[in-house]
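Incident log, structure service

09:12 report received: a user says their structure output differs between two submissions of the same chain.
09:20 pulled the input from the user's history:
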Amino acid sequence: MLKTYDYPKFEYRTPPEIASGQTLKVPVVVVGAGPVGLGAALDLQLHDVPVLLLDEDDTVSIGSRGVCYAKRALEILDRYGVGEAVCSKGVSWNVGRTFLRDREVYNFNLVPEPDHHRPGMVNLQQYYLEEYLAARAASLPNIELRWKNKLVSVTQGGESVTLKVETEDGIYTVETDWLIAADGARSPIRRMLGLEIEGKIFMDRFLIADVLMKADFPAERWFWFDPPFHPGQSVLLHKESDSVFRIDFQLGWDADPEEAKKPENVVPRIKAMLGAFDGAGERPAREFELEWVSVYTFQCRRMGSFNHGRVLFVGDAAHQVSPFGARGANSGLQDVDNLGWKLKLVIDGKAPAALLDSYSEERIFAADENLMNSTRSTDFITPKSRVSRTFRNAVLGLAKDHAFGRALVNSGRLSVPAFLTASSLNTPDQSGDTFAGRMLPGAPMDDAPLREKGADCWLLDKVGQQFIALYFADDAAVLPAPTLAALATLSHEGIPVRPLVISARPGKPVGDIPLLEDPRGIAAQRYDAKPGTVYLLRPDQHVAARWRALDAAKVRAAVARATCTA
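09:34 re-ran on a clean worker, output below:
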């Protein structure tokens, strides 16, 4: 048990199908109630898709596990209804520092410009995130949570998937149209279907120590190469909630995991580290308590495809990366953010099943980007040859005084959202339309502060869950009648497109079209928008297309392309 957290115990209920002997039929089953599986259920609930969520446990994750949630993940969690809870409980930070021995050689700021709703990163123990997500899911009508329900077999047919689920009261059968596998890195579903995951296992071990102590360390990420208190290895420090600090000590591949976890071996490492901060011998040793200890190795791997018939893989079940860069849960939440709206359109018969191929296409691109960055980080942090170590140390030595050296320092390139610029769902810019900035087709949207009916608001809170046509105007009060008529005709074959006007000047909503005011011009600047500029936004807050002038036929064609219904 932890000193700072009481684990919830979720109620097990006997499934009625055990007594009745009937097969339960549901549109979607999600297996695994970690952050990604709970996120998948909440995403589908926002699209009014009923979900059965199965988990073989009855509580949240043991230990802090994933602790860093990036800005994009926080924006997704806002839509799921838990973003504020995560940010309020967690420790927000933007600055990271890298040290060689006892000297700072490099630092970065994740959000170097103002006027963003969410910080670059929030540190929060994973059990809190799971607790918030589980409570949110339990409060909603379209999600049924079944704890202590273990999936034991999967049989895939042409039109459905049949599951056998084991409980303490017996086994029952579920038939579902779609199965989402969020069952983790060891994925029993992947094994049951005989599917492979390929990649690289890194020959190194790291000790995680969650330490409870009162300390005035700033809310920053600190990473040391070859520190005096742990020579020849690396150390990472993060501040968490509840006065807990997460410390990762590199151990080397030859370390005995069981011996390394023993308190008599962990405590001296922490004392040496704190002594370096406090000045050994100059003051009494800082008091601390061990909260949780674990030893891990890591791997960089992914499946060849994330969709297999009616089974869809998300999160660690589909791809695994090293923890440096906080890319695990962050990328998993982006998986389900990408998948939910596509699956909804397929279930409703408004898009072909081929749309789900784009889920695999886009998220494999993102996974490969994460794997590349994670592999490079790991190779830099844990060089496996004398030449690699010499190069690494030379880079660190140059970094303090030379910008080109700082650019080469790699203590974990932190999680950023994938720019899906090569996606087949994008409509390319027209030859006559030129744009500056980074909001090109395939880009995840930048947030911006706006006003609505005299109250402050944020752009990302006003979009998502359906296609949006974002129209920029100088003065919405004088929009010509043809423009208003065109904005009302953007839907494509039953797929709604909601117009949304951003006006530089205050005004009132134009008919049924919502109006947002951009008095400081920040949204216009970030989207390089002039009066008449139009952005087509996907339900997952990615840009699908953009134009300098509104043409309803072009918008409908872009929706058709983005939904594989062209």
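09:41 both user submissions now match this output. Likely a transient worker issue. Closing.
09:42 reviewer note: Residues 16-91+120-196+302-377 form a domain with the FAD/NAD(P)-binding domain fold (CATH 3.50.50.60). The radius of gyration is 25 Å.
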